[in-house]
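Put briefly, the fold is written as integer tokens. The lines below illustrate.
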Amino acid sequence: MKRPARTRVPRSVPLGQYRRTLMAVRRFRLNVVFGVVLLGYGLLLGRLGQLQLVDAAQYRKTWSARHQAPVTIDARRGRIYDRNGYVLAEPKPCVSLAMDPGFEVIKDPASFALRVETLVGADKLSAGIIRERIEAAREPVQRGLVEDVPGWVRLSGV
């Protein structure tokens, strides 16, 4: 059985030239690998730029549509009667509006309050009250001592 032939340098090629050729081939292969890696990073950087700069508005709109949605909570309850059969409480429909203050900065509270008033209804909530609540939410929380604390709260350490 014959062994596979090994590639050997012909005796006509000087040893120095063989080494230079071998180093040139290695350098070429290294440059090809480096070029492929550099091309990969370039494509990755280009895609990142496209996502962050070109398509940012579309992604922001999609995110906003997914994370802002009206939620209807069906919380109907029956009437509550006392022992004599008189109605103590009965369910009434109401509209509740909640906003995350850290989500979006309201630049013009007056126009925002008017828009909310038209959505909710002027009889339920006026624009003035909405504007006052927006301004109150912008103020930082005041920390400090409170003088009118009941004794049981002071004793409990709350």
Q: What stands out?
A: The CA atoms of residues 9 and 61 lie 66 Å apart. The first helix runs from residue 15 to 54. The beta strands are 80-81, 87-89.
